[in-house]
Amino acid sequence: MEFADEDPTVKFTTVQAPFREIDSTAGDVLVVTDVSPQYFAEIEHERDVRRRKFRFRRYQSDSELLVITIPTDVHEELHLQLFRQCSRQIDNMGLQNAWDFKGTTTQRSQGHPGGDGSGEGDSSGVPVPERGRQGAWPTLVIEAGASELLHQLREDMRWWFLASNHDVKIVILAKFDRHRDSVLLEKWEGAAHPQGILTRSRAALQQQHGLEPILRQTITITRDTATYPDSYSVHRGALVLSFQLLFLRYPRDGERDVVLGVEELQEYAVRVWRYLDD
Fold first, then answer.
1. Dihedral of alpha carbons 218, 70, 160, 153, sign
2. In the chain, how long is the greatest CA-to-CA distance?
3. Strand locations in 153-199, DSSP E?
4. Which of 46, 201, 224, 274 shows a CA-CA span of 20 to 30 A to 52?
5. Segment (H or E) for 37
């Protein structure tokens, strides 16, 4: 259950105003409306001049909407620790030179459905040499949210699939829920949707790509503070990432899907919760 109707939202007034809003925002997200492409370019330039570390999670020129990520400690742990767990397994297969961390590289969506725009993911990775070139889209994107609402995270997820023309293969959402003291993990993939009633938006997506985002896994991690030390329960099994989707080829001898089991997810939880205030 989410206890707010929307993320903190302000209307664009001046290039300097978003910086003041970011400094006064307690959470990890700020939404700015009425941002024209020219104003977005000016904000982007000002961020570089000031050497500020916040990220432009998603900018859509058609709706003039800018979603800004404010990298709090918890926010960063939510995605970085998950990506490190995945990379560790890839390294153990001997593929450390075949997988690159793209981090918050800016991806441009010019000419794609949904209008020109850009996005900076929290963590992302690409196979090499298949995607080891400038401007190539990652196959894996991880997006985190502490105060950001789940429905906004899902909009971020949809942007990645749509803007990349489904060059992005897997998007993982990691959502912290302070009220339930839990972390929700969602794994989304692009796939042809089973036959059923088509909404207008679904029909448009399938017409453009033949694919649409499908929720493949939902995992919940909860903390029990009645034990010492705290214990963590993982509900609905291991997180499984398809080797073929990550590397754009079939696995060879010694290669396999990336599987984060209960033990790995409990270790992940320990690292996330250590940054939370009591």
1. positive
2. 57
3. 170-177, 182-191
4. 274
5. helix 37-50
As a whole number of angstroms, the distance between CA 21 and CA 29 comes to 11
Domain boundaries, the chain: 72-273
Query: Tokens 């003039």 — which residue?
Result: 64
- How far apart are the C-alpha atoms of 191 and 206, rounded to whole Å? 10
- Low-confidence residues of the chain, pLDDT below 70? 1-5, 110-116, 193-209, 277-278
What is residue 198's predicted lDDT score, i.e. its pLDDT? Answer: 54
197: enclosing H helix or E strand: none
| Exposure class string for 19-50: b at 16+ Cβ within 10 A, else e | eebbeebebbbbbbeebeeebbeebbeebeee
Summarize pLDDT for 136-150 with one digit per residue, the tens.
Answer: 999 999 999 999 999
- Residue 111 falls in which region: left (phi positive, over 0), alpha (psi -120 to 50) or beta: left
